[in-house]
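seq as requested:
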Amino acid sequence: MSSDSAGDVAHTALDQAYGRFIAGDRDGALRLAISVLEDASFQVGAALLTVRVLAKEHRGIVAAEVAGRLVDAFVRRGDLASAVVAARAIEDCGEKAQAHFAAIAKAFGKGSARVSDVSQAPPPLPASPGVSRALAKLKGEALGDRAEVALAQLLAQDDPVAADTLLPKLPLVGALAPAVLERMLTALTVRDFAAECDVLRQGDEGREAFIVVRGALRALRQGDDGSETTLALLGPGAIFGEMALVSDSPRAARINAIEEVTLLVAARDVLEQIAKSEPVLGAELASFCRGRMIGNLLRHSAILRAVAPSERADLMGRFETRTFAAGERLVEAGTEAEGLFLIASGTVRVSSEDADGDTIVLAHLGPGDVVGEISLVLRRPATADVTAEHATIALELKREQFHAAIKEHPTLLGELYELATKREEETRSVVAQEALDASDFVIV
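struct tokens:
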């Protein structure tokens, strides 16, 4: 359970157990997980944590058998991420899990008869039983024995969720054939983070993408003035950092754990290696990331919000994806732009020259911002250079497409004209102020 701020998070016994586990207190984690297992039937979350603890304690015989059962249980509940964690736990117990990864891929992959337009089954109601005195006294081998008894009781029960339950259609996953999806799933690793830890830092180089298994996080972006804005709250099933799989752009936001979280991690170099023999994976990843990129722009770009929601798909279809290396120019001062650019990933520097030929940095722009509009809308040469500061992905609306677009979407021209005139005035003001500041140092 979570809320917008870390201070308001209500911790269940299982939340506390994960906190102990991440902190290295395995006995404390096990006592809490056992208390949940013994209090209510078929608590799959508590069972998974118990399995993970026992695997680290090298007590994998019962744990591996239960982990196999949990793979099926999470699949029935439409929880692919937790099913993958359970399959990884089998390996941590020293057993092979390939058949389980194959079962997950078959259930969720392309062509599965079980996949439909349904929502994932909600998790069981949180249980917060207290730890009994007898359980609190147990440790070491005795505590491990108690955990195995609790897991054996779960094994003896029938799963209340039917084996043929329909499963939700998941992005990317549903586009991959089971054999390809299986290879991707086996490449994922499990990582845990304590509450208030930064999973990602804004500006850092990215080489990994993440899927939230449990817990909650927030995405925050720092502005030029140092203030941070909350962009989104992320919960189980959310994907973030995916642009690192197709771009060298720095992280556009800080991702902070509100509470203890478990994540699946996809490393870019590993997926690239798989894509060499499975080209469809690379193609689907690129398509998925572009779709996510466009979705993000639709939420945050002022010019796209100026167009009616029903018209945005047509407008986005007119843009072409462009990539720019660090130092490469998108727009050159003094020339007429061939189109305008909507920054999708990365950052650009807008700069101009004063009368003495000195470079003045006017702005640093990132995802959602537009460049090139002054030249295109006001029909005059560009007033500034726009240069990629890092590897940058932008969507380009070429001049011909621009004229066609404003005929179809006249509100777009109004938004761009207002932006162009405002920026031109700001550029003049900054250059004039630089000239005034320089005159303070001139002695005559």
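The chain has three domains: 6-186, 190-299, 309-439.
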